C-alpha cells in the first residue's frame, strides 16, 4: 500500500512535466511564426483589401504607369527606358481594360476611379521636371516602388479577395506585373 502514494506522485510529476513540455512547444511555434513575419515572410499575413479599395489602387496604378510610360517614351535618355515605357503603356492599357470588365461583374458593381490620386500626380510632376540620366533614374525608382506595391496587392487579392471576378483579374495580371518588376530590377540605376 505504501507504494501507491509513490506511484501517484510519480504519475503526477510525469503529467506535470509533460504539460510543461507542451507549453514550451507551443511557445516555440508562436515565436517561430512571429519570426517568419518579422523576417519578411509576410505574404501569408498580408490581408487582401476590400474590393473597392483594391480596384481604386490598381486602377490608379494603371493610370500612373500609362502616363509615366508615355513620358519615358519621349523623355527617356536610353533605348531601354524608352522601350520599357512603350511596354508599360501597352500592358497597363490592357490591364485597365481587364479591370474594367471584371469590376463590372462584381456584386455590387465596383466603380473605377477616373482621376489620378494626388500622390501619383506629384510623382508625375517630379518626373516631368527631370531629364536625361536623372529622368531615367527617377523613372526606374518610381516604377520599382509602384510595381512592388501593385504586385503585393494583386497576389494578396488573388489569394483571398472578396470578389471572385477581381480575384480572377488579380491572378491573370500578377505575372505581368512581376515580369515588369524583374525587368526593372535588372535596369541600371
What structural keywords apply?
189 residues; mainly alpha; Ferritin; 2 domains; 6 helices; 79% helix; elongated; disordered N terminus
Q: Quick one: how many beta strands? A: 0
Strand content: under 5%
The secondary structure category is mainly alpha
The CATH topology annotation of the largest domain reads as Ferritin
Radius of gyration: 26 Å
Summarize the structure in words.
The chain has 189 residues and is mostly helical. It has 2 domains: 1-45; 51-186, Ferritin. The chain is 79% helix and 0% strand. It is built from 6 helices and no strands. The chain has helices at residues 3-38, 51-75, 79-103, 118-128, 132-160, 164-186. The N and C termini lie far apart (83 Å). Mean pLDDT is 82; it is low at 1-45.
Describe what is shown at a glance.
The chain is mainly alpha-helical. Helices cover 79% and strands 0% of the residues. The N and C termini lie far apart (83 Å).
Amino acid at each position: 500500500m505504501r507504494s501507491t502514494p509513490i506511484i501517484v506522485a510519480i504519475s503526477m510529476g510525469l503529467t506535470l512535466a509533460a504539460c510543461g513540455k507542451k507549453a514550451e512547444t507551443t511557445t516555440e511555434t508562436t515565436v517561430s511564426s512571429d519570426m517568419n513575419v518579422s523576417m519578411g515572410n509576410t505574404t501569408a499575413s498580408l490581408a487582401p483589401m476590400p474590393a473597392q479599395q483594391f480596384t481604386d489602387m490598381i486602377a490608379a496604378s494603371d493610370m500612373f504607369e500609362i502616363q509615366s510610360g508615355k513620358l519615358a517614351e519621349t523623355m527617356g535618355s536610353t533605348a531601354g527606358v524608352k522601350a520599357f515605357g512603350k511596354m508599360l503603356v501597352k500592358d497597363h492599357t490592357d490591364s485597365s481594360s481587364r479591370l474594367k470588365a471584371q469590376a463590372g461583374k462584381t456584386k455590387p458593381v465596383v466603380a473605377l476611379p477616373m482621376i489620378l490620386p494626388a500622390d501619383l500626380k506629384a510623382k508625375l510632376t517630379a518626373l516631368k521636371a527631370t531629364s536625361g540620366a536623372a529622368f531615367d533614374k527617377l523613372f526606374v525608382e518610381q516604377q520599382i516602388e509602384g510595381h512592388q506595391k501593385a504586385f503585393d496587392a494583386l497576389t494578396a487579392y488573388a489569394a483571398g479577395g472578396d470578389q471572385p471576378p477581381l480575384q480572377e483579374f488579380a491572378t491573370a495580371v500578377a505575372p505581368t506585373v512581376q515580369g515588369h518588376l524583374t525587368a526593372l530590377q535588372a535596369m541600371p540605376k
